[in-house]
Structures are given as structure tokens and as C-alpha cells.
Design goal:
With about 325 residues, this protein is an alpha/beta fold. Helix content is about 40%, strand content about 15%. The protein has a single domain, classed as Divalent-metal-dependent TIM barrel enzymes (TIM Barrel), CATH 3.20.20. The two termini are about 30 Å apart.
Length: about 325
């Protein structure tokens, strides 16, 4: 998780490295030469088939940090070659690159302190409020919509005290988000494997927070991987409570790896059925891939993303 923590702190990773090279064949957009961040050329991916035209029922995205081996420019080229145009978890320093490629910043970041010092702890409200009020304006002025936030760790707080603190701290920030047309999205994490002591580790806690804030400009980032670990019953949750979910993340369980291809067949979530439930719920936001690719080559990692998009394109 260190890569994501670094990204959330505004790592210079976003603008490092070189872009994908031009000159791919029209029949195979992925059959091109990739250049890694270290400048090392990678062999062409001649065996990778270009995806069929996407159906348009699901708005696809991918988390920036999971493809940190590529420069942001290279990742932009890759997602365009796969037929979609959105990247999650890019802060203001990366937005000029996205705009140059016509790619949406589908989940903005950069306002948070980190993953553990969040809105459920009143001691952080002062700094968080200042940062989020400023960032909401940045997001709105850039023409984007979604801004991530985090509950933080419990630090011995009861659930009721944490919920009360979060409502008190978030209320004025949500009002500003509503004025500017921005949606704050609190991510749900598992506290069993990856994020010990994280407070928003169940959809019930997040839904209660949404209900108390009572605004369409505060929603939950429903991370399917995390919620499978904590509570399962993913499709029922989507059908019953989808109105509170403003964004989705994917990854395979167990391991947080591929959801397509050979590894995808070994994980326990049925992503085509989940994606169909999301589509049938009337959801119009983004489903973002946040699995950690396992291949050691750029070609293999590109293939992993290709396969994941195909699995979810229902």
C-alpha cells in the first residue's frame, strides 16, 4: 500500500518518466513500444489483442497508483488504446496532463492528510476543513466532479462518537461542495487485512453517515474488494443501497490482484454479475479498476487492464 500512500501525499511519480511511443498499427492499438519510467524500452506487445468496442453501459476508469510503473502520459495512452478515458486518484499536479489527452480525473485526490487521520477524529477537522475547502474550488474550477475523503482510524473512538464527529466536521465542507457542484466520496476500506483500525469499514457505517449529512454531494466510494473481505453480499448491497454509492473500485479477492485472465478465474468475486448489478441499478458514475497487476512486464500489465475492462464491460 506504500505506493498509494505516496500518491495520496502528492508524489512526484505522477509526472515522472516518458510516454508510450507512437506508431502502433491500426488493427492492434496495444501493439506498440512501451517505455518505462527508467527510460528502458520494452518489447512490442504483438500478442495482445485490441479490445472490442466498449458497450457504453459502464463508465470505466483505472486507479493511477496501480500503474505507477508508467508515467502519467504513458497511462493516458494506454487507457485511450483500450477505449476508455478516465483515471482515478490524480491530483492537481497531474490534471494538465489529463486535459492534454482528453481524459477525465474521475476521482480527484490531494486534499486528504493521509489514510489514517480523517474526518472521524475531531482533532484533524481544522486542517482538513482548510484543505478541503480549497481543494473543492480547485476541482470545480478544473471542471471535475469527484473528490475522495477518508474516515481515518478509530484510535479507541466508539462508532457513535466517530459518526457524530464526522458529521460535525463534514457538514460545512459538504455545503461548499454542493455550492460548487462537487461530490465528496468517502472510501470504505477493510480493517481486517489492509487497514487495521479504519473506521469506515462497513457499508452500514457509511450509509449512516450519508443519511445524517443528507446531501447528494456526499456519497460512498464502494470498494468491492474491501467490502467483500468485510461483509460480502456485494450484489444485494448494490441493489438495496446503490443510491449511496457514488463510485466503485475493483480488485480480486483474495490478494487484490487481477479480476480477469487466468488469475481472475481463481478469485472469488463474479465481476460480470457485479457489473451488471451496477448497470441495472441505474448508476451513472465510474467503475474504476484498482487491482494490483502481477505481471513483471509492461505488456503483461497492459494485458491485465485489458482483461479487467473486458470482464466489467457488460
Amino acid at each position: 500500500m506504500m505506493q498509494r500512500r505516496q500518491l495520496l501525499k502528492g508524489s512526484a511519480l505522477l509526472l515522472a518518466g516518458s510516454a508510450l511511443q507512437a506508431g502502433c498499427s491500426a488493427a492492434n492499438p496495444l501493439a506498440r513500444s512501451l517505455t518505462g519510467k527508467d527510460g528502458t524500452a520494452v518489447d512490442k506487445m504483438g500478442a495482445t489483442a485490441a479490445p472490442a468496442k466498449l458497450k457504453g453501459n459502464i463508465r470505466h476508469s483505472v486507479a493511477r497508483w496501480t500503474y505507477g510503473d508508467l508515467s502519467l502520459e504513458a497511462l493516458c495512452e494506454l487507457v485511450l488504446s483500450l477505449g476508455f478515458a478516465a483515471i482515478d486518484l490524480v491530483g492537481p499536479e497531474g490534471w494538465p496532463v489529463l486535459k492534454r489527452y482528453g481524459i477525465d480525473s474521475s476521482m480527484c485526490n490531494g486534499a486528504e492528510l493521509n489514510l489514517v487521520n480523517g474526518w472521524c477524529n475531531a482533532e484533524f477537522h481544522g486542517e482538513l476543513t482548510k484543505r478541503y475547502l480549497q481543494h473543492i474550488d480547485l476541482v470545480a474550477d478544473a471542471g471535475y466532479k469527484n473528490l475522495i475523503c477518508f474516515a481515518g482510524n478509530a484510535r479507541c473512538l466508539s462508532r457513535s462518537a466517530a459518526l457524530e464527529a464526522a458529521v460535525r466536521g463534514l457538514a460545512p465542507v459538504v455545503e461548499q461542495a454542493q455550492r460548487r457542484g462537487v461530490v465528496l466520496q468517502m472510501e470504505l476500506f477493510n480493517s481486517r487485512v489492509d487497514h487495521p483500525d479504519y473506521l469506515a469499514d462497513s457499508s452500514d457505517f457509511g450509509i449512516a453517515l450519508c443519511q445524517q449529512l443528507g446531501s447528494a454531494h456526499f456519497k460512498l466510494l464502494f470498494d468491492i474488494y474491501h467490502m467483500q473481505i468485510m461483509e460480502g453480499d456485494i450484489i444485494r448491497r448494490i441493489r438495496q443501497h446503490g443510491q449511496y454509492f457514488g463510485h466503485y473500485h475493483t480488485a480480486g479477492v483474495p490478494g487484490r490482484h487481477e479480476i480477469g485472465g487466468e488469475l481472475g478465474a481463481l478469485q472469488e468475486l463474479n465481476y460480470p454479475a457485479i457489473a451488471k448489478a451496477i448497470k441495472d441499478s441505474g448508476f451513472t458514475g465510474y467503475l474504476a479498476q484498482e487491482f494490483i497487476p502481477t505481471p513483471t512486464t509492461a505488456q503483461g500489465r497492459a494485458q491485465s487492464l485489458h482483461d479487467a475492462i473486458a470482464v466489467c464491460d457488460v
